[in-house]
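The aim of this short unit is practical: by the end, you should be able to scan a pair of folded records and say something sensible about each. We start with the first protein, listed as its amino acid sequence and then its structure tokens.
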Amino acid sequence: AAKVLKLEYDGLLFAPIFYEESVSFLTEYKKKNTPIVMIDSNLPEIEGAAYIGQNSYQSGFLGGKLISYGIKNDSNVLILKITRNVESTSRTNVFLQRIKGFYDFFKEKENLPHFNFTEISIKYDIENQLTTTMFEGIDCVFIPNSRVYIVAKFIKDNQLKGIRVVGYELLQQNLEYLNEGIIDFLIHQKPEEQGYMGINHLYKKVVLKESVTDLHYMPLEIIVQENYTSTKS
């Protein structure tokens, strides 16, 4: 990041991963007065930057709908936040927005059965953090990022049955467990298309000098076992 700040570019395409470092870097980069396009994650703190990606709140709202779909009886839902740094989940905008949207779905839908919620945060690179005790009485699991395969592997290895699993991203590991029927729904963010549109945005703004909309939300796409092969390019 320090090297990038010393060099001169006509535009920046950036995918925020580490929240605090990204805000610090982009705040400094803004002083160059060149276009910035963020993909995957939006940082509202960075005014004047474009964003191409999902509406995180709406995707969480959709996650709630997928969890509740067809459920007729009271259910227990486990929300598993799996990150590099457990403490960072409270500061990561994508996590916060997805989880807020998830809860808001259940608040708005008064005709649903009663859902009980439990939240657990773990670090993805430490073994044996999941326990069967965590899953006792659990009917559904929502993972608000791409590491849903960690949960799916645990469910398979421990032969846990009757648990609906909803997560994000078409990682190969996720698709394998989707195909096995362990993961029920994946919300697809179309990362390749985000990157393409990000470069196209910079091309229009920097080269063609066109006026371009700075906020573009990608459509939410639901992937299930029966349709995932059609998403491959």
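Turning to the second protein, read its sequence before its tokens, just as you did above.
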Amino acid sequence: MMEDISEYECPMPETFQEKFGITLFLAWLFYLGFVSRIIFAPLMPAIERDLGIGHARAGALFLLISVGYMLAPVCSGLISSRFDHSGNLRFSAWLVGLALLAFSFVEDVVGMGLLLLVIGFAGSLHLPSAIATITAEIQKSDWGKGLSVHQCAPPLAFVTAPLIAALLLRWYSWREVLLVWAILCLASALLYTLRGRGGDFPGRAVNLANARPVFANRSFWLMVVLLSMAFSGNSGIFAMLPLFLVHERGFDPAMANTLIGLSQLSGLAVIFAAGWLADRIGQKRVMAGSLLATGILTLLLPWMGGGMLVLVLFLQAATLTAFFPAGFAALSRVTLPSLRSITSALGPPFAFLVGGGFMPTAIGYLADSHSFEAGIRMAGCYILLGCLLVVPLRLGRYDNQAGC
């Protein structure tokens, strides 16, 4: 039996401007955790050499991150239901930093795989509480703006993670690069513990009673598939792109990471416009247009070289980034407001398992058996189907319901 939402004291929603500080701090924590997951992509050529593994095994390491991501929803709900969303956000921030510290001592693939599970787990804890906090603290008419600030984290991470790796690998080993980032994560966790605000209301523990109405909702599963397509375009492609550029296009690793990082600037440039557009024309139209353009550009990517390759990388990042403010706002509208933390806890991990886990694994196996180009084309075809799945999606049935 579901808990009575009347026992929860929800925060009074305010304007985006009044809650900008809270939103920005949550975005910073999201950024740190996101970099902690994706920085292994630009580090992977060095990790492959150090550990003596092939492309398929490298792709499987990213699958372990997504498996860790899948393990977190139940724990996220338990922590936030007992210690509020703010407590869950603090725990996530500390766990990311401590897990990165442990990479200084890893010596084999097994140890690295276990730590990647923890990294995926820690990163998954943040998102449900962050989305529940933003959508409860900010009035609905400003959700696109608030979620755009929070969703700045992924494109900013995609820009900076390769550049950080390209810069620091000049002087440090891949383990030392992770150590530097661990120190920054732990310092931020301490600051948030001492000064963080927002999220001072409980989430819902993920149990059969709470999950049943979510799982019975067809639009929830449609959003899971749509998110998996979007994750395939950024996390899935991004994970294997440095290996593709180094091994099939002959790029120097530093040059490959620099190109990848700079190409992601276009995504950062469109994030606020995407949130504004989602508020104006609706989330469904923005999601459909984003996946259509991204699928086409992903299919073009393996055929391009030189300046055209750079142009496609820039355009692909821009069109894909436009999906996420609309996508997470839509995910908050497929079920009751009191179940937002449940949908946010369950939806993204399921989607990331496919897009950020199975997709790079499949690309790696195709790279070993055929070529990276075959794997990237397969990903493009999958993303392209998304513009059709948006049509039956139903949003807004619960917009007038109370709860947080």
